[in-house]
Amino acid sequence: MAKERMLQFVTVNREMPEKRPANLRSQDFHEIYREFAANKATEQASRCSQCGVPYCQAHCPLHNNIPDWLRMTAEGRLEEAYAISQATNTFPEICGRICPQDRLCEGNCVIEQSGHGTVTIGSVEKYITDTAWENGWVKPAKPEVERAESVAIIGAGPGGLAAADMLRRKGYQVTVYDRYDRAGGLLTYGIPGFKLEKPVVMQRIEQLEASGVNFVMNCKVGEDLSFDAIRGQHDAVLIATGVYKARDVGGPGAGASGIVQALDYLTASNRKSFGDDVEAYDSGELNAEGKRVVVIGGGDTAMDCVRTAIRQGATSVKCLYRRDKANMPGSQRETQNAEEEGVEFVWLSAPKGFTGGTTVDGVIVQKMRLGAPDATGRQSPEVIEGADYVEPADLVITALGFEPEELPTLWGVPELAVTRWGTIKADFRTHATSLPGVFAVGDIVRGASLVVWAIRDGREAADSIAAYLTQPASVAAE
């Protein structure tokens, strides 16, 4: 019976949930995709070929059991589908919304390779978990046995929260420390609502609190509380701070007002969505309304910025990227959404400097061409001499990526080993650092990466921490 429900890809075409029209969705910060109807989710899930070697699962960092929960969905067994999804993923409703499925599970779907169009895995995953929340199937963790050992987690982003969830399920006492006033990290303040509406994140935070996770907010480690004090209060520590130090754009005029960093800009916008008073937004400093906006960068953060600027009422929004569209690191789906909403991409362009003196009024743009491949295999951009021009701009947003803060110096722990890139040096299997009982996960180890990788790291580290706390002598001796 199960097989009859599946393998429908030959007769059923791939369909995404309906996308709200660009002229309407660009007026607000609500998610742009409508919900799947039950019959449509069932139909799309039934397209799965149930192949013997599921490449979708193999290319998912969490190795989610995708074929099984697609089959459960096709058969209308949604509570079972959710249970399978939740077994390997702490936040399936978040991954269903923001994972670059085109580069991961969907991009490696077998029927996609055969020309039939991939299964809409991300949309079905979102549908399953949203349905689970609506029906009350998502429950706070209730460990069978409470343990006395406590774990400190520094950073309330996806890696830290995933570890907190798994550790509470094992019965450990968990305290999460974070510099912000709300938990979630970039899920809360970095990703705009049109990709991830904030109630979706907040309901998970509330679930963790109901599970017994203690949150200490507005706490800057190294200032409000020392790292040594945290180590002294807990039996193990997990560092999950992420990377927040923005890369400098440089060039003449780079210090002018009107040139802002992407995270500052996105955080101000997201705070407004919570109803917060944001002086820098209200003053216009971090608000694109009525301005000619230029965003520098080609990753997902740049896409978040250009699409936010459109919604804030910018008169024009242009994105400068030094390579061409084919070599852009951001999601092609996000680039298409941005183009639909009125963003203009200026390919093979890079900033050389800025005009306007103390207040920016333009970007000096160098035109580029692609030369020989670099060490990664991508063609390196080369400057075309004599092709510079000035792009008028009232607001310039730099989205050139993030680097790790110097945690050993900031926290006064020089013995915490870091790599030559400044990321924390941690064992790739156990996530253990050079300090006994201290572990690290996510971007502070990997460098800027995907949310799904941080979730995987957090879940793995929870297992390692549990092993350390139950067998400290043997683990410390390894």
From TrEMBL:
Per the record, the domain of life is Bacteria
- For the Dihydroprymidine dehydrogenase domain, which residue ranges apply? 26-136
The segment(s) forming the FAD/NAD(P)-binding domain are 150-458
> Is Glycoprotein one of the keywords UniProt gives this record?
no
Instruction: Cite the entry's keywords alphabetically.
Output: 4Fe-4S, Iron, Iron-sulfur, Metal-binding, Oxidoreductase
The UniProt entry, under NCBIfam families, shows: gltD_gamma_fam
- Its protein name is Dihydropyrimidine dehydrogenase subunit A
Organism expressing this protein natively: Gemmobacter lanyuensis
- Mind giving the lineage of the organism this protein is from? Bacteria, Pseudomonadati, Pseudomonadota, Alphaproteobacteria, Rhodobacterales
In the UniProt record, the gene name given for this protein reads: gltD
